[in-house]
Amino acid sequence: QLQLVESGGGLVQAGGSLRLSCAASGRTFSRYAMGWFRQAPGKEREFAAYINWSGSRTYYADSVKDRFTISRDNGKNMVYLQMNSLKPEDTAVYYCAQQKLPWQISTAHDMSASAYEYWGQGTQVTVSS
Questions:
Q1: What is the overall mean pLDDT for the chain?
Q2: How many CB atoms sit inside 10 A of residue 74's CB?
Q3: Cα–Cα distance for residue pair 18/120, rounded to 1 Å
Q4: What does the pLDDT average to over 117-128?
Q5: Which H or E run contains 99?
Q6: Which carries the bigger pLDDT value, residue 106 or residue 78?
Q7: For residues 45 and 38, is the Cβ–Cβ distance under 8 A?
């Protein structure tokens, strides 16, 4: 059974930085693309960042591009989200997710929650103004 566990959330002032981590266990991590999504109160879950199985390709939502960086360490079964220049509108619960099928070619569908089968429990990020 796959498990995804996020950590690293917290309270930060606007302009600050946080690094989220997601630890995966239960199947061969290096075969699967990973994503970070977020959900603010009263809003739908939205895509933030994607990284393919090898780490060679990444996508970002326009709202986080040039501020957030997704990375992975396949040797440690970890995926990260470095968040810089945080804004109050970045306040949300952040979820990491793993796609169902291995070694998939990257497409625009990777930015949709429906491309992901497994989800972590989420970590709260709060950015104060």
A1: 96
A2: 16
A3: 18
A4: 97
A5: strand 92-99
A6: 78
A7: yes
Read off the amino acid at residue 70: I
Asked whether residue 11 carries a pLDDT value surpassing 90, the answer given is yes
Rounded Cα–Cα distance for residues 112 and 47 (Å) = 7
- Minimal CA–CA distance to 122: which of 50, 47, 28, 20? 20
d(CA 42, CA 128) in angstroms, rounded, equals 18
HSE-CB at 124 with a 13 A cutoff on CA atoms is: 5
Give whole-number Cα distances, 18 to 7, 13, 87, 109, 125, in Å. Answer: 10, 10, 12, 27, 9
How do residues 47-74 score in pLDDT, each as one tens digit? 999 999 999 999 999 999 999 999 999 9
Q: Which residue has the tokens 């950015």?
A: 127
